[in-house]
């Protein structure tokens, strides 16, 4: 399914794309970073003061090197400022460009369309209506992340006319509470607990309370592990994994990757990115195994 920029980016539903909405579509990662930076500025004077603090030689321009050295910004944040702010592409940011990026690239004000319900003891974000449902398995940023996850969940429900549910698979656990990422992955990648919730709570809720007749799953990042594991059940008709982190999660859970893939019972689309593990890319174990299944089709 190909969605136009207007379909994805028209947050306020007026049928047009303004500058803020367009930037959010074209550079979603950068705008999220800039929103975090710009939130510290209460007025124009604060932005100007920050610029002058970095412009030590007073030439009215700041290079990447100066911003890295004389500001509290990290490499990702500096890159975001230059990606969106260096409009003339001269390799430096002047005051007008700095003000412009801080004032025009903040995410468009957004109000959630769904509601949070409790299924068993787990919070579930619910939006949409109908008899078809997609279970959105979130990444490690979690159920209450400050990125655009819920906005995308709402947009998917609006575009498809389906029910979209996003359970809180982390149960309130935070990555800051772990010593390192591997320990964090090990603590949250507990298929027994997730499976019990799916079989005993979520499936009956979808089927009996909401009247759902068809279910698919969508996983992003770490959530692709959850989506793939749920795909071992015949109730799941299709699975889509975006930037999958399956191999890392399987390793953290001390499971066997081939056994996890072997259990899959539905058509699966892997949308890997450049920095993903080769196991999830074309030619990796996932594709090699899925090619043996009856529902395999090259796209």
Account of the 3D structure:
- The chain has helices at residues 5-9, 19-26, 28-38, 44-54, 64-70, 75-85, 95-104, 149-160, 181-188, 191-209, 223-230, 246-252, 257-262, 285-290, and strands spanning 61-63, 92-94, 115-119, 122-127, 132-137, 163-167, 214-220, 236-242, 268-271.
- It is built from 14 helices and nine strands.
- It is an alpha/beta fold and 299 residues long.
Strand content: 15-25%
Q: Determine the mean pLDDT.
A: 81
Give the oligomeric state: single chain
H and E string: HHHHEHHEHEEEHEHHEHEHHEH
Sheet with most strands: 7 strands, mixed
Query: If strands are numbered along the chain, what order do they take across the biggest sheet?
Result: 3-4-6-5-7-8-9
| Overall helicity | 40-55%
Intertermini distance: 12 Å
Task: Tally the beta strands.
Answer: 9
Produce the secondary structure layout.
Elements: H1 5-9, H2 19-26, H3 28-38, H4 44-54, E1 61-63, H5 64-70, H6 75-85, E2 92-94, H7 95-104, E3 115-119, E4 122-127, E5 132-137, H8 149-160, E6 163-167, H9 181-188, H10 191-209, E7 214-220, H11 223-230, E8 236-242, H12 246-252, H13 257-262, E9 268-271, H14 285-290
Parallel strand pairs: 5-6, 5-7, 7-8, 8-9
Antiparallel strand pairs: 1-2, 3-4, 4-6
């Amino acid at each position: 399914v190909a969605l136009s920029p207007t379909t994805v980016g028209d947050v306020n539903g007026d049928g047009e794309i303004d500058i803020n909405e367009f930037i959010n579509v074209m550079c979603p990662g950068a705008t999220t970073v800039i929103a975090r930076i710009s939130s510290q500025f209460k007025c124009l004077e604060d932005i100007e003061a920050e610029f002058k603090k970095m412009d030590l030689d007073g030439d009215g321009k700041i290079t990447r090197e100066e911003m890295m050295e004389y500001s509290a910004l990290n490499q990702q944040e500096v890159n975001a400022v230059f990606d969106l702010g260096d409009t003339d592409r001269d390799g430096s940011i002047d005051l007008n460009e700095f003000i412009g990026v801080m004032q025009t690239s903040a995410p468009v004000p957004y109000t959630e369309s769904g509601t949070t319900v409790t299924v068993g003891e787990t919070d579930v974000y619910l939006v949409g209506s109908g008899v078809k449902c997609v279970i959105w398995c979130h990444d490690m940023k979690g159920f209450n992340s400050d990125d655009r996850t819920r906005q995308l969940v709402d947009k998917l429900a609006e575009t498809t006319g389906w029910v979209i549910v996003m359970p809180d698979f982390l149960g309130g656990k935070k990555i800051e509470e772990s010593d390192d990422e591997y320990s964090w992955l090990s603590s949250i990648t507990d298929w027994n607990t997730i499976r019990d919730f799916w079989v005993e709570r979520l499936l009956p809720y979808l089927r009996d309370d909401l009247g759902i007749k068809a279910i698919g799953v969508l996983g992003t990042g770490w959530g692709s592990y959850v989506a793939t594991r749920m795909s071992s059940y015949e109730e799941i008709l299709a699975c889509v994994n975006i930037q999958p982190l399956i191999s890392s999660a399987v390793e953290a859970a001390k499971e066997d990757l081939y056994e996890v893939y072997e259990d899959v019972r539905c058509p699966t689309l892997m949308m890997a990115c450049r920095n993903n593990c080769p196991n999830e890319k074309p030619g990796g174990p996932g594709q090699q195994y899925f090619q043996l299944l009856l529902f395999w089709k090259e796209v």
